[in-house]
């Protein structure tokens, strides 16, 4: 069963077949890119306590590094993908959390909304993979009025952000995803997928996942919801392989729960996807979820009955079941031991004598009665 999807770029195919698909790969030139896989912090109920030095980025923006990043900083008009949590300074009122929503936001530096200008300054001074605490004055936040969308952000509220720069694209035009055509977004995602495949072949799994996750970011739920017909098929032809290849990387890294999530996303769109069923079954098997894994493998076998890897996994599960049964049998045998033999009890002498005496008396009584008759 192949691990890496090698589909042809669907956007290029669309351009050839559809006269309206005038945008090609050449319309967005990626000059430089950097991206790292990220995991959410464990506790987000309050801003983290950070002991690192306070760096002044602007009169109203200060930064404390939580985790160092790598590479260069994004340029102006770079399209940045970030996760963040936001609080009102001096309070525990968290009003936004993209980790909880499981969707990074897109920020084009120099083109961000007014209320996010302080956040933009902070992100522009971060490196890929860096996590930091940003202190933003109200003038570069929600201003004198506060926030209508977030009622717990009062007027003139200073803000605290816990931010992670997942990755960025330095592009000439500084286009946000929302400004791209369907073909442009699919083409950008497809380029990421191809780069991820190259990293995978080189066994650079973390780097491969970075590219796959960036590709998936271009295919967000809001975007997919708007697509129908051939455009949805084109997008899924890029998105689903990225999820599947993410799952393959995660399995190799023993991150089985995350692999299950990636496969389940694909199966929500295509319940008969053999690779998704197989890889989810593999991850479940590694977690000891034997029955659920067997169910996935049997479904995969239904759609691909001759697949040798699927048959092999089913045989392994059967052998595991047999070994477990034998182990349990030996365990119970040792626990309770062999059943004891029933030995005949020795007769009590007094009981035997008493029984003989009673029988003798009965015999004599019968003889006496017969004689009298």
Automatic annotation (TrEMBL):
EC class of the enzyme, as a word: isomerase
Molecular function via GO: peptidyl-prolyl cis-trans isomerase activity
Key words of the record: Isomerase, Repeat, Rotamase, TPR repeat
Disordered as annotated region, ranges: 1-50
TPR repeats: from-to residues: 274-307
InterPro entries in UniProt: AIP/AIPL1/TTC9, PPIase_dom_sf, PPIase_FKBP_dom, TPR-like_helical_dom_sf, TPR_rpt
Domain annotation PPIase FKBP-type: ranges: 77-169
Pfam family, one: FKBP_C
The enzyme's E.C. designation: 5.2.1.8
Biased composition (Low complexity): 9-25
Catalytic activity: [protein]-peptidylproline (omega=180) = [protein]-peptidylproline (omega=0)
Record protein name field: peptidylprolyl isomerase
Originating organism: Panicum hallii var. hallii
């Amino acid at each position: 069963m192949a691990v890496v999807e090698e589909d042809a770029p669907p956007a290029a195919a669309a351009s050839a077949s559809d006269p309206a698909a005038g945008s090609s790969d050449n319309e967005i030139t990626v000059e430089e890119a950097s991206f790292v896989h990220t995991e959410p912090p464990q506790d987000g109920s309050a801003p983290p306590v950070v002991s690192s030095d306070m760096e002044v980025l602007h009169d109203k923006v200060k930064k404390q590094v939580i985790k160092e990043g790598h590479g260069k900083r994004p340029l102006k008009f770079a399209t940045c993908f970030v996760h963040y949590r936001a609080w009102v300074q001096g309070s525990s009122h968290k009003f936004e959390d993209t980790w909880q929503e499981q969707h990074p936001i897109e920020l084009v530096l120099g083109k961000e909304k007014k209320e996010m200008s302080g956040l933009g300054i902070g992100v522009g001074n971060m490196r890929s993979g860096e996590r930091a605490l940003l202190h933003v004055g109200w003038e570069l936040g929600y201003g004198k009025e506060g926030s209508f969308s977030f009622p717990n952000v009062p007027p003139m509220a200073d803000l605290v952000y816990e931010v992670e720069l997942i990755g960025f694209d330095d592009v000439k035009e500084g286009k946000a995803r929302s400004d791209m055509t369907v073909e442009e977004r699919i083409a950008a995602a497809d380029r990421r997928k191809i780069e991820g495949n190259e990293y995978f072949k080189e066994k650079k799994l973390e780097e491969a996942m970075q590219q796959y996750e960036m590709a998936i970011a271009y295919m967000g739920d809001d975007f997919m919801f708007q697509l129908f017909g051939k455009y949805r098929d084109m997008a899924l032809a890029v998105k689903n392989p990225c999820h599947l290849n993410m799952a393959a990387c995660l399995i190799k890294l023993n991150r089985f729960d995350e692999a299950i999530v990636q496969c389940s996303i694909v199966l929500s769109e295509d319940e008969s996807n053999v690779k998704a069923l197989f890889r989810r079954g593999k991850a479940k098997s590694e977690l000891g979820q034997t029955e659920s894994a067997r169910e996935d493998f049997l479904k995969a076998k239904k759609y691909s009955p001759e697949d040798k890897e699927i048959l092999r996994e089913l045989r392994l599960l059967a052998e595991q079941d047999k070994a477990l049964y034998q182990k349990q049998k030996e365990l119970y045998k040792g626990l309770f031991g062999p059943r004891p033999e029933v030995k005949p009890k020795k007769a009590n002498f007094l009981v035997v004598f008493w029984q003989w005496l009673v029988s003798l008396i009965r015999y004599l009584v019968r003889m006496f009665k017969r004689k009298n008759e």
